């Protein structure tokens, strides 16, 4: 399923969401200028190796979140970030949003690294923003479960479907778990466990960081 839009307007301009998208695109444009041998070195230098978690290389956790393995990888992540991230930023505010984003990415990195260290390849680099964006999806489904997501469903590209957010994101998470179960860890490709780790991190983190605004009730006395 490919999201196209949602029906939740934002109250403020999503500056940080746009900035994150801009940085990811800029880094990717730099990547495609590199010859293959330099690109490999770039990925190993700034991507996250599972062993980096043991060394507490948090700098590589952050840099890895801005590197992508191809145009489809970048486009899919940025599409999800734009559609769902702007509303989460609107709800949390700028400071909390960037903290939420980075901590979700950290949770994704830790889970994927543990799996790779115990059952996969400890020297296979992990790149991409999808772990942090998975946390954004978890926040969105809690904040706006009944929002409507306008969706393409292949192969019915000539039709648009309007799905509730709880169904769209719930189905997405089910697919991540399903593929994590059937895909041997350490073979490369999609980091399914990073998606799961980021989602679980965001699921619990949003409850700690989001405080609904209380509506002030004014009581009027009768004038005599």
Which characteristics define this entry?
single chain; 224 residues; mainly alpha; Rhomboid-like fold; three-stranded antiparallel β-sheet; 9 helices; 9% strand
Give an overview in words:
- This protein has 224 residues and is mainly alpha-helical.
- It has a single domain (2-209), classed as Rhomboid-like fold.
- 62% of the residues lie in helices and 9% in strands.
- The chain has nine helices and three strands.
- The protein has helices at 15-31, 36-46, 50-54, 58-64, 71-92, 94-119, 130-143, 165-182, 192-209; strands at 2-6, 148-153, 156-164.
- It is globular.
- Mean pLDDT is 89; it is low at 215-224.
Q: Flag low-confidence runs.
A: 215-224
What's the CATH first level? Mainly Alpha
Number of domains: 1
What proportion of the residues form beta strands (DSSP E)?
5-15%
In CATH, what is the homologous superfamily?
Rhomboid-like
In N-to-C order, the SSE pattern is: EHHHHHHHEEHH
Mean pLDDT: 89
The separation of the N and C termini measures: 63 Å
Please, what is the oligomeric state? single chain
Topology:
Elements: E1 2-6, H1 15-31, H2 36-46, H3 50-54, H4 58-64, H5 71-92, H6 94-119, H7 130-143, E2 148-153, E3 156-164, H8 165-182, H9 192-209
Antiparallel strand pairs: 1-2, 2-3
Helix pairs in contact: 1-5, 5-6, 5-7, 6-7, 6-9, 7-8, 7-9, 8-9
